[in-house]
């Protein structure tokens, strides 16, 4: 079978870095995001990458797109869930809609993606599900109430998935990124910070690739990634 990876939530950061890393390793990569223009540009520059427009807050779209991925590329053996927007407010400022939106992208979307991908993942001797998370999953700050509550719920969900699917040799791993990802907007926002302050997307992609190569006798469930100078 073809080596097929799906990256859900592709943007100019970790998502794009995942696409480039797995493509370089010979995978056909299905790229899922809402922005068709961005995906089409990336498709032109990365060998083996295919664009699939999908809103990760719409379960029916996720199901339909993953069926299309299998039909066009083959069954997925690596699923990366990189969708996870956040609202940064305290509990008084945040609306119920803010909390619901955070839950839908971080939890509901992952559930829908897993349900749709499992029949494909089970066709392989071993497979991987990788979720990119944040330090908010393990600590709730005053102004991260919607985001932190959704990420904490997602982390518990991922633990449940890992315990269920591990015996089937489906490696489920949670990657906690504790730092500021190097993006044009974060560079502008933190213009005075040195290069080594930022998390490099290519380095994150290397770490995720290594996770997917682990022997089943020594799997990592949760991997913390942070710059060497990060205070934690």
Counting helices, strands and paired strands, the structural category is alpha/beta
- Report strand %: 15-25%
Helix amount: 40-55%
Strand order of the largest sheet: 3-2-1-4-5-6-7
pLDDT < 50 stretches: none
> How confident is the prediction overall: mean pLDDT?
95
Number of helices: 7
Question: How does this model look, in words?
Answer:
- By secondary structure, this protein is of the alpha/beta class.
- It contains 7 helices and 7 strands.
- A 7-stranded parallel β-sheet has the order 3-2-1-4-5-6-7, with helices on both faces.
- 40% of the residues are buried.
Which key features would you list for this structure?
7 strands; 7 helices; alpha/beta; seven-stranded parallel sheet; single chain; 232 residues
Topology:
Blueprint: E1 4-8, H1 14-24, E2 28-33, H2 36-45, E3 49-53, H3 59-73, E4 78-81, H4 96-121, E5 127-134, H5 145-165, E6 170-177, H6 184-189, H7 201-212, E7 222-225
Helix pairs in contact: 1-7, 3-4, 4-5
In a few lines, what is going on in this structure?
This protein has 232 residues and is an alpha/beta fold. It has 7 helices and 7 strands.
